[in-house]
Structure formats: structure tokens, C-alpha cells
Amino acid sequence: MTLPHDPYITAVTNALTAAGLEPADGWTSDAETRGVYCYLNAVITLDPDTSGIDPKRWPHGLILIWEWHTGTEAADGEPERGPSWECARLVDSHGQCGEREALTAVGYASPTYVAESVRTLIERRNQSTPAELWERAKELDAACEAWGAAEIRKAGE
Question: Could you give the 3-state DSSP secondary structure of residue 73?
């Protein structure tokens, strides 16, 4: 099944590869929080062997997490409506991760900008390029919003 964010995550994966940060793994899904409501997510894994990240600093790798939430339960502590990028250090070889941190890229950032954000993180430097949105951000937002509206309708049935 194709999900609304699949083309975007593919473009980000391609930009990471072009920047010399080839992902070891990646996937997209529509997941559930506590079985209550669905959200869109994607995970991209960078490891020292394939991505060229520092094995001393990132011995098990780094994951990049993109999520789009409906905002339905924001009052209960769940995320607000819309997209976000986060990252986390992998703490073992089984995919367990440390505390998530916000990535400097906005939710619909251009894939090149996401790759630059990752590069600044792993090189411990400040972001030097201005933020830019993906050229298909409006299309992606509309697709995510349509998906979210359908999920809310399904939950009300």
C-alpha cells in the first residue's frame, strides 16, 4: 500500500545517499499510539558501516524519524497536528533508541535540507543553509490532511 509520505521519504533517502550518508534501512507506515489513533511515520537508519557516521560517537547508529499526526489528542499530551522530524541515537543493535531530539529540519523540509541538517548534527556544527521547503510540500500536506480526515472519520464510525 502506498502511503501519502512515501514519495517524500524516498526523496529524503536519495538526498542522504547523494550527501554521502547512505541509509542502512528505512520504512514508512501508518502506526497507532496506544491503539487510540493513527499517524503517519517513517524511520531512516544510519549506521557507521554504510552511512559513514563516526562509530565512536554513534556506535550503533542514528535514526531519523518523520511523523505526521492528526492532532486529535493534542490536549492529552499527544503531538499537535502536522509533520515533524526528530532523531535519536541507537543504543543497541536491536533498534532500541535513546531520547528523541528535534532535528533542525521542519516537517516538510526539502530533502537536501534534511540531509544538511543530519550532516550538521553528526559534524557538531551549526546549520549554515537557510531552511527551505520541499517543492512538493503543498501536495504532500494535502495528501496527509486527506489521510488524516479519513482516519478521523473511521475512528468516529
Answer: coil
DSSP classification of residue 134: -
Average pLDDT of adjacent 10-residue blocks, the chain of 157 residues? 92 97 94 70 93 90 91 76 89 79 88 93 78 92 90 72
* Vertex 60: Cα angle to 54 and 61 (nearest 5): 60
The alpha carbon of 106 is separated from its chain's Cα centroid by a whole number of angstroms, namely: 10
Instruction: Give me the amino acid identity at 135.
Output: E
- Give yes or no for a contact between 87 and 63, defined as CB atoms under 8 angstroms apart: yes
> Which residue reads 535514526 in cell numbers?
63
- Give this prediction's pTM: 0.89
- From CA 102, how far away is CA 88, in angstroms rounded? 9
Residue 133: strand pairing partners: 109
CA distances from 101 to 3, 69, 148 (A): 25, 17, 24
Pairing of strands 37-46, 62-69: antiparallel
